[in-house]
Write a structure and sequence with these properties.
The chain is an alpha+beta fold. About 35% of the residues lie in helices and about 25% in strands. The strands form two sheets. The chain has a three-stranded antiparallel β-sheet with strand order 1-2-3. The protein has five helices and six strands.
């Protein structure tokens, strides 16, 4: 693991399922809504193109304990993804794993920043993690 003024990065070659994957993980030090420049800089330093990048973000419009994966497309109103797209020069050709957090009647910002209920934390520690790893394997196999 290494750190610079913009974020934290780790790199390793791992086996996910049956696939050997060169994995670079990056966590920006900036708030999600303004994280794009640091993420784009890390992308340029470590991978051949944004199409090799996976961004994992929350999604108010997807049910709790679900994940939706896709390559490309709009930000769907997510300000953090908008920031990344802008920092990549409007290149939208990267993978998005949208983690469903659902929504209640409270203010969206307050809801997004609230602590996950224990049943959701347990899900993402177990079956949810398996979902994410399965999708990473699919991306890696496509090369």
């Amino acid at each position: 693991m290494s750190a610079d003024r913009n974020g934290f990065m780790g790199q390793s070659t791992v086996t996910i399922g049956e696939t050997l994957v060169s994995l670079h993980l990056y966590k920006s030090k900036f708030l999600m809504n303004v994280s794009g420049p640091s993420i784009a800089a890390a992308c340029r330093r470590t991978i051949p193109s944004p199409s090799s990048m996976i961004v994992i973000s929350d999604s108010l419009s997807h049910k709790v304990e679900t994940m939706h994966a896709r390559l490309g497309g709009s930000a769907n109103g997510h300000n953090g993804v908008k920031s990344i797209i802008s920092a990549l020069g409007n290149d939208m050709n990267f993978h998005r794993f949208r983690i469903g957090i659902g929504r209640d009647d409270t203010d969206a910002a307050k809801y997004v920043l609230s602590k996950l209920p224990s049943h959701e934390r347990r899900f993402w520690d177990n079956e949810g993690l398996d979902l994410v790893l399965s999708e990473i394997e699919k991306v890696a196999r496509k090369g």
